[in-house]
Every structure is written in structure tokens, then in C-alpha cells.
# Entry
Amino acid sequence: MRKIPLSFTLNGKPYEIEADPGARMIDVIRNDLELTGTKEGCGVGECGACTVIFNGDPVASCLLLAGQMQGAEILTIEAMSEFDLGHLLQDKFLEEDAVQCGFCTPGFVLVAYALLLKNPNVTREEIREAIAGNICRCTGYIPIVNAIEKTAEHLREA
Amino acid sequence: MKTHTIGKSIGRIDARAKVTGRAEFGADIRLPDLLYLKGVYSEYAHAKLLAVHTEEAEKMPGVVIVVTGKDIPGEKMIGELYIDQYPIAYDKVRYLGDVIAVVAAETQEQANAAAARVTADYEPLPVLGSPRIALDSEYVINEEYPDNVCGVVHTRKGDVAKGFEEAEVVIESTYKTDFVEHAYLEPESVTAVPSRMRPELTIYGSMHAPYNARISLHRTLNVPMAQLTLRPSTVGGSFGGKIETAEAMSIRAGLVALKTGRPAKYTLTREESIRESYKRHPIEFEVKLGATKDGILKVMHVDSISDAGAYTNMSPPVAYKTATLGPGPYRLDHVDYRARAVLTNNNHTGSMRGFGTPQAIFAMENSMDELADKLGMSPTDFRRKNILVNGDVSGTGHLMDFHEVSMLSVMEKAAEELDFDRKFAQYKEENKDPKRRVRRGVGIAVSMRGASVGADGNGFDVARILIEVMKDASVHANTGLVELGQGLRTAQMQMVAEGLGVDLNRVTMGDTDTSRSPATGACIASRGTMLGGGAIFDATQRIRAILVEGLKKTYGDDIGEVNFEKDRVTFDDKDLSFEEVVKICYGHNLTPMAPGTYSVPITDWCEEKGFGEPFYTYTYSCHAAEVEVDLDVGTVEVIKMVGAHDPGRAINPTFLHGQIYGGLAMAQGMALLENLGHNTETGALKNQNFADYLLPTILDVPDTNVPILDEHPDPRSAFGGRSMGEPATEPGAGALACAVNMALGKPGMIKQLPFDLDRVFAAAQELWGDDDVEIS
Amino acid sequence: MLKFRDYVRVESKAELEKVLASVEGPVVLLAGGSDVLVQAREDDRFQNHTAVDIFGVKEWHAIVETEKDLLIGAMATHAMIADSPLVNRFAPILAEACLSVGSPQIRNHSTIGGNIANASPAADTLASLVVLDAKVVVLKDGKEHVLPLDEVITGPYKTSLSDRDVIVSLRVPKLSEDVQHNYTKIGRRRALSISRMTIATLLQLDGEGVVTKFDMTIGATFPKPVAFPDISAMLVGKKPSSDDIRAVARALSDKIPEIAGIRASTRYKQPVCRRLAERILHELIGDE
# Structure
């Protein structure tokens, strides 16, 4: 079976790898790149735990093939601590008690990051619409919305 | 009790690792030389397993070993209380989630490909796809239970025949619930690592009850417990679900690891997790209630049957909680509540947040609404008249004189927050108009939850911890009460600091390591805080005594009382730092380390009579819900839910709010959305992943949900805290169901969960369907 | 990890034609890929297929207008269509339908072309495309053919396309701005929801309240998308009364057993369709 050559940028770093044609983006990220912050909750795009930022937009990494990563700019949770906005979001998630078991958390943080980067003036309703593809079984969502809202407030005040 | 570190909402100690993606969950484990595992499932829900053919699979590329039930060297079956579960099916398969072989290969893909090549010979047997079928069948699933009934608990108080004679208003209804999936977002994953030195295993991964697993590993793999270590990874949610399945997986992985000398990693896909893992019990309740004309509840008769599935698992204890907590926080003279658990060829059923009570509360609270309605009373007025207060005797015969029975206070807080009384009256009036096609309803449900396992575990209900004070005066505490996301580890840290009188930042809560702390009952049954607190109190008292011994050696035997507070140690005219005292202790070659043990006092419960004190103490809860129902479409929108609870003392109030928010959402799923699509003829579950098994999304959960804490510290708990894990969700489905039925205009209209689109529409059609009704 | 024989990515129509001609064996076209990957997970159906990724063909992403039509590239994602100023102006019902697909993550990487090619009977966009009288432009053997939707989708998960035919764009007649629309989706929950039933409606009234345009259909209900000119005729030219509306609603909902047969779902869909259709029409016609 032919391996396909891929080059892409992930978390600001350029990569050149070879992947199985059937490998999914989540397989490349977790196995080839050994970045395990991105989680597999269902494998069918229904839970959002595998969310990454792909050319600026949140996508389900379990629903993209490795080949679709070619030439793309990708961000995973591991990059968040290095950006001011990412770090701020993480602080607010802690302050607002938006983390319980933590499995869904990377997905939510990335969606929030992409949202606030595009539009720091989000309303609470817009926040809720943006995270509608992320399931949480522990927190009941409200603390997560509070964390993102507080982050937006902080940005506006700054 | 003056407190310093408990009662404060400090941040979770593990949250930073989770929010940065650094926390290691089971599937994140990476090791050199790893083998990857894949299980092969039974093709039949009930059959004799005649032979398993692994030769084809063994020849596949990358395959290192294929194991079957024959390869288990020790006992073939496991079980915490009842030993009837196959980790690998041996001679019979009892449900479609039974595993008949496990393949280990160099890559996951190779293991998957080889697993598809395993075949088996079966002699199919009839599928007993429901309790009623099993009760009527001549076939026996487990020879130990010749009538397929694996548990009966029968609570009795007074004389129900007399009660029904006296009752002036009676209602009678049958309520049903279905299988519910835990749906923790992290699918199960365990990794077994063999030692190079001796037959010894360390197991990592997502597990809820490591000491239970240790016993099962010992019995099946013939390895001494001293050579079995379990170290749970960060667990991505459990809700009771990562116990027996994780145990079975640990045994399979452990077997491969021992046979090959290589670490073995075993991760389930979501479909496999749903297929194999145990579920919440479906229960059918036949309820009969009677009251006087002026609304005094007199008599209650409930006969319930639960689907125990293929293995006994926790079905008898679930029956215990159903029969002892099902009667609810009500004052009445005559109770007869029977709970029977019946084995079937369905997924086995076991621990899931609530353990029988969400189902029982759904049935009871809707029945109470039916009775209130027949009496012409509102749901709240009826409950005001009949809820337990201090000094009452409960429905099971427990004299409630040992703590503040705050049930009414909790209910009033919930009702007030929702504006229940006013809305009930308003909506009841408005909904009389058949032209009102979109209408609102409110519902309320109350519960009292016994802490821990109750008298059912009399003598066995114990928790342990080990605390060591290091030479630099940092404190290490380790316990098998696992952090599942509920915040237990942080709350434990707060209690350890409180118990030693030291600053929070002096305490390190280690990750659970069974080689570093003695066996404890698991953090199930909402016992983690209370029992863990008891064990922490015991350990910290012992350590204080050792430190005092050191002080006496230096300062003399006649020193006054020693106080440990706010990181200082004071006695007589001395004021020392904690470091100094520790140094003194080590200086005398004393060892400031101690285990802590707490066992729940035995309560006076008579199993034979089904009467007495079923639990040591209780937590009072009330959920109130407002919904909007569209009669013409069958949709239910949840407008607002309130969760009010008296958890004793809140060790960390913010964490309890978090539990309540989560519990309300979980109840919403159970009430309105979640359905596994179980087929009674085949035992199969149609809805195998989250596209079809629907969890509430953020757009479904009201943004206005409110958690309320109504604290009354419990004198029966070392630090005053009781339970929240299960109380946070248990009355929610009942409250929502009551609200929907109220909106429909008829309490008890729909009697089966979930109240999904088709059920609500069909009910609306029956009550309000009229071809000629003009649409407004 | 899923099973594909090979993966090839193309960035232009010319490249695609070369690849389709040279690749041996069956081909599965990858637009966003979400439907294909979910199906690949269920079994090994694509293990002998070469996945040909056409998402990168830039000309098929564009949304442009001509005098009469919107030309929506088949690779336009549901998110792009939902956000597009042109679509929101000239075919807002399609924007709404696209916004109701799955979740933000799914919308960001799933396409209208893929939605049509997958031909799920529950696909969210199809009812809107029917009332818009959208045409599908298919590249077949090097030539572009303009086909009505119901000649492309022939049944549940069935199209008239071979594995090497490519949907390249949609031609959607522009609506004048006084055409009202309603897109109603019944799902079991409010996000990540498969349609139980959708109803798409276009209605235009003149200055006197007489209906000049009326199209209505039901989605997620029939084996393939269906238009109902006979239903349109019931209101066009009329100033509708409540009785007219009731008659339309009944006629529309009667189509369900007529076309889809009497199934378990009919008991739900037929009465719900009738009541919702009445509601929708009352809302659009806006009587007292």
C-alpha cells in the first residue's frame, strides 16, 4: 500500500510525513505526531472532542483524512498555552470551574479560540451557537459558556 | 466547627493539566514495545459456546497472540458481589457484549483485521429479551437462580390492606424506564504492563474501582495481590460505568501482558463501549397510592421489576436502593415496596449515577402528581402536607431525629426559584384552552438519598487512605477513591489540610496507586466525600498523635493540649511552625505516616422484615422544571430547571454547583432524549453511537438553570459533608416528566421514558388532537 | 484508521479528468468527506476504492451571480453558503437550511455537492433546493450537463451518477426580494440533529394579497426530493382564506402516505405536517 507524502503546518511548526491513505487526521495527530491532547470520543463527528482548528475553522479531526491536511495550517490544544488568547481562555476555564473530567475540554477551548479570534464582540447566544457541536457530559455547559463570555469581556476591556 | 480550608471554592488541582491537553487519559498512554488489543464479540445473545477458532487470526500479519476463555489460568468468572461475569466467555454466551476472544498485535489495524478472522461454533438458545419473558421462560441463564430472579428486596411498614381500606382517594399506574447509557465522553481504555522481575502487573487506564479490579485480576490470573498494582489515569467521566467493564478489560490485557511479557493496550471504540458496557436498569413500577380526602398520604404499594441483564452485577443492591429510597421523603403509615431483579440476555445492568433512584423517583413523583390532581391539590401543596420533618418516621421505619430533616426547606427553595406555585396555577388555567397549541408546564420532584451503600453493605462499607508527612513537611496523601471529574481529589486535599491544620499548598494528593494506599471501597454511592472524609479525619488524627509524641519527647510528657491550626502548632506558651514540629518528630526517629480507616456504623435494618434504618444518613434534594410543549409537533423545550440540595456541608461549593449543572443536563437526557433502541427479540441495541444515542447539546440545556445549596452540616459526618454525586441528578427526570404531563393537562399521561417526539405527540393527539380545531 | 486503496488530491478540473481517466478500479469522490468517512468506518466498503479529493478545486468553491441565477460551487461548504451575502439576499431559504446542518465543525467541512451526492433521504438542504427549483450541474465524460435535482437523486442514498461523475455546481434562480420563505426542521434535539422532517416554503403576494408564487415541499420524508406543482396551483392566483390554507395543508400532508407509503413514521409525519403547514402558511400570509 502506497504511503502518501504530506506537508502541513501544525501549531506553527512545519511537518513532512508519510501517511497511510486511510489514516484520519486524528490518527496522524495522536499517533504520528504523538500529540494526545486531541481526543477521540465517538469517531463519527458527533461529540466535538476531536475538534482542531483547520485553516482558521473548527473541524472534526475524526472526519478528515490525512491527505486533506496537505498544505493546511492546523492548531491543536497544545498550541493554546502559547497564544495570549489561548492562555486567557485557559485561565477563565479554570476560574469559572468549566473543567470537570476534562475530556471534552480541548475541543471547547479550540472552538472558543477560533470564535473569539474572528469576533471578540460575541454575544452569549453566539457563543452557545458556536459550541453547539461540542458535547459535555459532566458540566451541564453553563460554566463553559460563562468562561468564554468572561474571556470576551476581558478582551473588550483590554 | 470553625473551618479554614473546607467550605472554600478553591480551584481544581488537576484542571490546568486538562485545559492544556497535558493530562494523560487511558488512550493517551504511550510505551515502547506496546501490543494493541481487539476483542471479538459473541454473535448470539444466548448460546452455548462450543468452540472458538483462532487459527486464521493467529496467522494474520502482526498478530502476536490470540487468547480465549480457556487461557484464563484461574477462576473463569468475576464479580464484586456476585461471581457470575465472564471476562472472556468460556462455555456460554449470555449477551451480545460477551467477548469470546482477544487479539494482540503490533498495530491496532492489524489487531482489528485479525479479530475479523476469529470464528466460533455456537448452539443458540432462546433469547430472553425482557424480564417478563425471562420470568415466564423455562430457560435458566444462571443455574444459581432457577427462576431467573437474582435479587428481591421488600420494604414493609404498617398494613397496606388496612391502609387502602382507610384511603378515600386512590390512584393506580404503571411506569416504565428503559436502558440508559453512561455516555462518559472518554471510551474505556486500559494498559497492562508486566514487570521484568516477576509475574507482576501494573494496570493503567480509565477505571473507577481499582481495588475491585485487583481482586478480580488476582482470582483470574493467579497473581498475588501484592504483585498487582492499579494506577488509574485521568478518567474522562464514569458516572458508575467504568467498574466491571474496566475490570474485564484489565484481565484481558493483563493476560496478554503476562503471556507475552509486553505491555498491552486495550481501547474500545464508542460502538464497542456501547455494545459491551453495562447500563442503567430498565425498571417497571406498578404503583398504587392512597390518601384521605383532605390530602394526607396514607398508603403506598409498589411492585417493581428491573432488567438485570446477563450478569447479576449490582442488581440486588440496586433493588435495595429502589425499595428503600423509592418510598421517598414522605410521611405515611403503610408501605409495601417490592423490588425484584430479573436476569435476561440483555446488556448487564449496574452502577449508574442514582442506582435505581432516578427511575423510582420518576415513577413515584408522577404518581404523587396523579394523586394530588385527583385531590384537587397542587403538587407543592400536596407535598407540603406529607413531607417528612424532624422527628417523623420514614416510609421504611427510620426515626428521623439525628440531623436537620431539611426536605421541605429544600423544596421551598426550588419552588421559589422557579416561581412554581404561581406558574402552576397560571398554566393550569391557560392550558384548558384547546386552541393553545404551545403550552407550558411545571413539575417538581423530591428525593432523600441514603449516603453510601447502606445497610445492604453493613460491615463492608469502608474507606481508607494513607497519609505521609515528608521530612520537608510536605504532605503526601494517597487514596483509591478515584478522581473522575467530580473534584474529589481537590476536596480531599481541602479535608487533609483541614485535618492536619496546615496550609493547602503543603498537601499533595497523589494519583491513585493501589501499591501506595490500602484497599478502600470505591467512590460509588455518593460516598467519596463523606467516607473519604472519615478516613482522612482518622489518618490526620493519628498523624497528629505521632507528632505530639515527638513534641513530648522534646518538651516533656506534661505539655498541654496541642493545637494544629493555620500551619502553626501551639501548646502552652509555644508557637512552632509545622516544619519545626516535623523535624522534631523525625529527629526522634518517629514516623509521621498513618493509614486512615472509616467504616459506616451499622444501622438497625431488618432484612427479613424490610423495616428499620436502611442508611446511616440522607441527603435531601428537589428538582423543579418548566417546559414548553408543542402539541402539534410533540417537541418539548426545557425552559428552566432548578436543582436544590442539602449536601450537609459543602466542602467546595463551586464543585457542588458543577455537579448540579451536570446532573440537571444528565436528567434532561434521560427524560427526553436518550434511547438505545433495544430490541426485545434479539437483545441487540440499535443505537450504537452518538448519532443515534442523543445526548443534550448546549442548545438543548436552558441557559437559565440554577443550582441551589441549602446547607445543614451533618453531625454524622466527620467534616459535615454528605453526598452530591447522585443527588445532583436523581430527581431531574421525574421533575421533567411531571412538567410535561402537566403541560399536556393530565398528570401521569405519559408513563414511559424517554418522553421523545413520538410519545409526546401521540399523547398530545390523544388529549388534544382534533381535526377541526382551528390553528391560532 | 480507515480502509482506502489510495488517496489522490486534485486542485483543478483538468487534473481531476486526468486522474479519473488513469486511476484503476473504483473511485470515491471526496468533497468535505464527512459522509464518506462515516460510511468507511462502518465496514470496508471503500477498501478497493481510490479516494479522489476534489475539495481543493477552487473554481468549485465560488458563489457568484449572473443576472438570473446564483451559481453555487459544489465544493462550497454549508458554512460558506450560510454566511454568503449573495445567498442570504437571493436564496435565503438555502442559507437557513445550510445553517441547520449538523454542527459548526461539520458545516465548516461539508459541502452542498457532497450533501446531494450522498443523497441521504434526511439531507437538510434538499427540500429547499426543490422549492428553489435548483438545477444540478454534473460533469460527465468531460461535458457539463444541467439536470433537475430529481434526475440526480433517484432514491434513498441513490443517484444517477457513476463513481466518476462529478457535481460541480448548483444553478439557483434568484428570488426577488419580496418572496417570503420558511424553512422548518423538526429534529429530536437542537443541534447535531438529523432531520425527522423538514418543510420548505416559498410564497409571494402581490399588492392586493393575491398569491403570485407558491412552492412547498417536505424533506426527510420521501424516497427522493419531490416538487408539488399541483399544491402550488391551489393558491396561485388566489387571496387565500383559512379554508384554502387548511386544504393546502391537508393536500400536502396527504402526499406522505401517497408517496412514502403507510409506515410507522406516517402516524407522526402526516398529522404533524398538516398542522405545521397550516401554521407556516398563516404566518407567511399574515392574516389577522
